[in-house]
Amino acid sequence: MSTKRNTAAATRFLGKALRCAGHRSRNGECPGGPRVICTDKAPTYAAAIAALIDEHKLSTTVEHRQVKYLNNVIEGDHGRLKRILGPKGGGFKTPVSSYRTLQGMEAMHALRKGQGRMFAFGCANPDVVIVAKAFADA
């Protein structure tokens, strides 16, 4: 969540997303990074991706897709959250309360979709790992 939608905020967001995915650049090379990044048509994302490529945090071969149809598939995944929170985003008073609430809702959504194996591959009960990660900070 950001109050501004500018290039600095987009760069920070994409950098955090890469770190959370376990992506690290080694010696200027970017093995295991994303092959495609799908965003909406905001010009800030193109500038942010170019900045991350210049900083060697993204591969030069990464493809930036700004196709509305492809982005709608991704946006539809969190349509339930938008429906629950309403048009104004739920009226959270602080960023901390919004973060905790959305983190819990996303964890339950991941459990419902059966995505436990993706987040905790090889664990006997991957759903427990999702719940533990989601509520460790709460």
Automatic annotation (TrEMBL):
Signal peptide: none
InterPro entries found in the cross-reference section: DDE_dom, IS_Transposase
Domain DDE: 2-115
Stated name of the protein: DDE domain-containing protein
